[in-house]
Amino acid sequence: MGIVPTDQALRLAEDAGLDLVEISPNAEPPVCKILDLGKLKYATQKKAAEARKKQKIVEVKEIKMRPNIDTHDYEVKMKAMSRFFQDGDKVKVTLKFRGREMAHQELGLKLLLQVKEDTVGIAKVEAEPKLEGRQMMMVLAPK
What we know:
By secondary structure, the chain is α+β, with helices and mostly antiparallel strands. Helices cover 41% and strands 29% of the residues. The radius of gyration is 29 Å and the shape is rod-shaped.
């Protein structure tokens, strides 16, 4: 309709049985539309709900191991890890040391490096293996 005075725009909206909605208040002159405000609010609410539904929340799953883990147990843990990566989740690998295992931390590091090597095709290392107290941790994220 072009540039119309405010009182005339309000009258036009009232005659149509709709609302005068300010679309861009910062423009010079401000941009307004004659439409049903209830429908506009409903549409924006639906659009926001649809956007929330589509977004994926990334969880951090934890896999706990010990330095002297058996090969079959290791394979089971690796299978679970690959399933987590397929779901799009991050994996925190925790290696717990008990008693005299603390004297052989190189075995734990070797195991975590093996995990890193086995997942190189499907995951990337987000946090390198590091020792915190009696446990060594590493965080992997899907590629």
